[in-house]
Design goal:
With 229 residues, the protein is an alpha+beta fold. Helices cover 19% and strands 28% of the residues.
Length: 229
């Protein structure tokens, strides 16, 4: 064979299939994660075990390490805001105050799915060096974003409110408290206006305080129901 002495412009190098977190499909079949038909995110906690590096290799060893606990209540608290509607009249502000709640649905669902997949050890055996980012947790989050989030949509938002009398307690006016023990059919808020982002990543809930804010403050909590598309 005659040498050409022409250097190749690229070389072929074998890489781990886990470098690509996008599930590919073809005409005949596709490999896809089996998911639940519906997900209710209320007040559950999910416990899982892993190495300090985030890898899940040997459960018998990892179970001797401190557990990781995901709290859906804490996660929802971190991923929402409740603010007074600044455009309302002074009359409304001093009586049936209008509130605006903004909820980051994408973050909440992503974190729930992440904890669930960790619990069931979906990526067991995959080590950090087998991923593009050299971090199994980043790879798992990318997998969820690429393959799972778009398979769900928000079906229902339930907001629960319990009123506290300001006259009998040393509580600041307009100071509302996130509490998971107010979930009760009697506390379900029925008059809510919602606006969901076009990509389903966030939702805005607008509602009036049913008892005068000059006399009452609120304990509140919400649950989210997602359905598989």
């Amino acid at each position: 064979m005659r040498r050409t002495y022409i250097s190749p412009e690229y070389i072929n190098k074998k890489v781990y299939g886990t470098y690509n977190m996008v599930e590919e499909s073809n005409f005949f079949c596709a490999k896809m994660l089996d998911i639940e038909d519906s997900i209710l995110i209320d007040n559950q906690s999910i416990v899982y075990y892993q190495k300090i590096t985030g890898e899940q290799i040997d459960f018998s060893i990892e179970s001797t390490l401190p557990s990781i606990v995901y709290s859906s209540s804490d996660n929802k608290k971190e991923n929402h805001s409740l603010e007074i509607d600044k455009s309302q009249s002074d009359y409304n502000l001093n009586n049936n105050t209008i509130w605006i709640m903004n909820i980051n649905l994408k973050n909440i669902l992503t974190d729930y799915l992440f904890a669930t997949m960790k619990r069931y050890r979906t990526f067991e055996g995959i080590q950090n060096y087998m991923t593009l980012e050299n971090d199994i947790n980043v790879a798992l989050t990318k997998y969820i974003n690429f393959n799972v989030l778009n398979r769900y949509k928000l079906s229902n938002l339930n907001l629960y409110i319990s009123y506290k009398d300001l006259r009998n307690q040393s509580v600041l006016r307009y100071k509302n408290t996130w509490k998971n023990d107010v979930v009760n059919p009697d506390n379900l808020m029925k008059k809510i206006q919602t606006e969901t982002a076009f990509d389903g990543s966030t939702i805005k809930a607008i509602f009036n305080q049913e008892k005068s804010s000059s006399q009452y403050t609120m304990d509140y909590f919400f649950t989210l129901l997602f359905e598989k598309i």
